[in-house]
Amino acid sequence: MEISCLQQGETALITVKDNGGGIPPDIMDKVFDPYFTRKFKSQGVGMGLYMSKMIVEKHMGGQYSVTNCSEGAEVTITLPLAGQATTDLTATRDNPSDVLAALPRDSD
């Protein structure tokens, strides 16, 4: 696994690469969907990538994406540097139920 963080102008660029072979093309557009998982139900509910993307994009004013690279998958997170975020995170941190209320509910 390789993790890097660098500054590009007024943003921080964080990349995380693995060597796990990548994400199959037929599910690449689904990996950020809520409740999407390829694991057994006892191993996860499919909310991790969805929640990560929502926090970065909706609450931190950043971008979150995933692509395949030569040996595996690469997650890229772009965040505005301090003072540049579009949303104040204090309300979310002090009122975690605000985040939970915004989550889609599983109809099953």
List the helices and strands and how they pair.
Blueprint: E1 2-8, E2 11-17, H1 48-59, E3 63-68, E4 73-80, H2 90-94, H3 96-102
How would you explain this protein's 3D organization?
- It is a single chain.
- The chain has 108 residues and is α+β, with helices and mostly antiparallel strands.
- The chain has one domain (2-102): 2-Layer Sandwich (Heat Shock Protein 90).
- 22% of the residues lie in helices and 26% in strands.
- It contains three helices and four strands, in the order E-E-H-E-E-H-H.
- Strands 1-2-4-3 form a four-stranded antiparallel beta sheet.
- The longest helix has 12 residues, at 48-59.
Which features characterize this protein?
single chain, 108 residues, alpha+beta, Heat Shock Protein 90, 4-stranded antiparallel sheet, globular, disordered C terminus
What would you say about this model in short?
The protein is an alpha+beta fold. The chain contains three helices and four strands; from the N terminus they run E-E-H-E-E-H-H.
Helix/strand structural class: alpha+beta
**What spatial form do the alpha-carbon principal axes imply?**
globular
Series of secondary-structure elements, N-terminal to C-terminal: EEHEEHH
CATH H level: which superfamily?
A: Histidine kinase-like ATPase, C-terminal domain
Number of helices: 3
